[in-house]
Amino acid sequence: MKRMFTKSKTKADILSMLDRMIAQHGDAMSIPMLRVDQSDHLKLYTCALTTGFLQAMICRLPRSLENPEGIQRALVMKKVSEIEERLSSGPYGFPNAIVITLRCQDSPYITVAPLESRTSDSSGIVLLTVALHRYREHIAACAADEAGYLLAPEQELLGYMIDGHHRTEGAYAAGKLDYPFLTGVYLDLDLRKMAASFAEINCNQEKPSAIHTNAIRNLSGLMSDRENTAFDLMDELNGRAGLFHDRIKMFDGPRARSLPRAYVNSSKMQKLLEINLQNGFNYTAFSARVEAIETYFSAWKACYPQAWDSSAHVLTKTMGIDILFDLYGLLSEFMRSSILAPGALPERE
User: Fold this and answer.
1) Which of 61, 170, 221, 271 is the most exposed place for a label (fewest CB within 10 A)?
2) Strand pairing of 248-249 and 98-102?
3) CA 315 to chain centre
4) Model confidence pLDDT, tens digit, residues 136-153
């Protein structure tokens, strides 16, 4: 794996980002940080740090063959590209924090000091000051390999990334060097404590279910027009009197005993409807689309009345619904071309 995708940027890239920060802040920059006391005896602060700061001063430590004691997962460029696309297409927020540790003890380039104030209200606020010009001189004097990468970035940079290297790399790829990330900053963590921090963030975290993710994407407005249409069709099929009434699992958790058996979960039904928006009976009117789907499935029920809604058969389990939707587009196209008048709704017979 190329070093550019592991520990740091090239020496030239780092110097360029430092020049940008020096032009913005002068020879030194100061950032207020708020102390977060979590009773674990670790020095933890929160603040906002930019992409440029995190890429120019913080060393990534992904676990790989070349770095077996690394902390993070290997960088997945597909995830980086997705973040780059989101940031490039318009405003996008990352409310979850980047987590880093700074090597402050005996550092000639970093100081952390209490914020001077006339009141005692700022006792938990400190100023992180970075000597940008002196740090730039240091990086300029560092040895680099033939490709331009620092020979020992873990020694030369000012700290280590614990969590967030995909987000910062995606922002860098999008050219968002001044993009501010909410950042949790530990001071002087050793490798063991860095690993413990990563584990606390990631190892006990359970990814949301496909059902919940699908609903939240719709609620938040992140779906495309096609996805929204499919969601609305699904919601209508599940809510109206018909074959799919209360038969689509729309929520996580135990299903109420008063509800009938679910045929399919919402994330699967969403995908099946998206595929069939064009291949099926693609009527302009929303109600006509719903009626066409209901009529199609009622025909299958009439053909196989014993198998319909029978736990001994597959017809109304996820696999059966999937198979029937595979045939929906083919039969719809045949009926449109050979049987139905233009714009006419199909009949069950």
Assistant:
1) 221
2) unpaired
3) 35
4) 999 999 999 998 999 989
**C-alpha pair distances (Å), 292 with each of 172, 277, 296, 332:** 48, 11, 6, 9
What is the arithmetic mean of pLDDT over 174-197? 87
The token pair at 135 is 């740090």
At 230, the amino acid letter reads A
Q: What per-residue confidence (pLDDT) applies to 10?
A: 92
Residues 217-247: pLDDT tens digits? 888 888 899 999 999 999 999 999 999 999 9
| 8 A C-beta contact, residue 211 and residue 255 | no
State the pLDDT at residue 73: 67
CA 226 from chain centre, in angstroms, equals 21
DSSP 160-204: EEEE-HHHHHHHHHTT-TT-EEEEEEEES--HHHHHHHHHHHHTT
Q: What SS3 state is found at 284? A: coil
Total H helices, total E strands in the chain: 12, 10
Smallest CA-to-CA distance from 32 within 145, 137, 117 is with 117
List all residues 6 or more positions away from 331 whose beta carbon is below 8 Å from its beta carbon.
296
3-state secondary structure of 239: helix
Of 247, 243, 214, nearest to 231 by C-alpha is: 214
Distance CA 95, CA 308 (A): 46
pTM: 0.68
Task: Determine whether 205 is exposed, middle or buried from the number of CB atoms within 10 Å of its CB (0-12, 13-18, 19+).
Answer: exposed
Question: Which pLDDT value is given to residue 319?
Answer: 96
| CB atoms near residue 219 (< 10 Å) | 10
Which among 110, 125, 161, 163 has a CA at the least distance from the CA of 45? 125
**How many whole angstroms separate alpha carbon 225 and alpha carbon 278?**
13
* 324 contact partners, CB below 8 Å, separation of at least 6: 296, 297, 300, 315
Chain segment 241-292, per-residue pLDDT in tens: 999 999 999 988 888 889 999 999 999 999 999 988 877 777 888 998 999 9
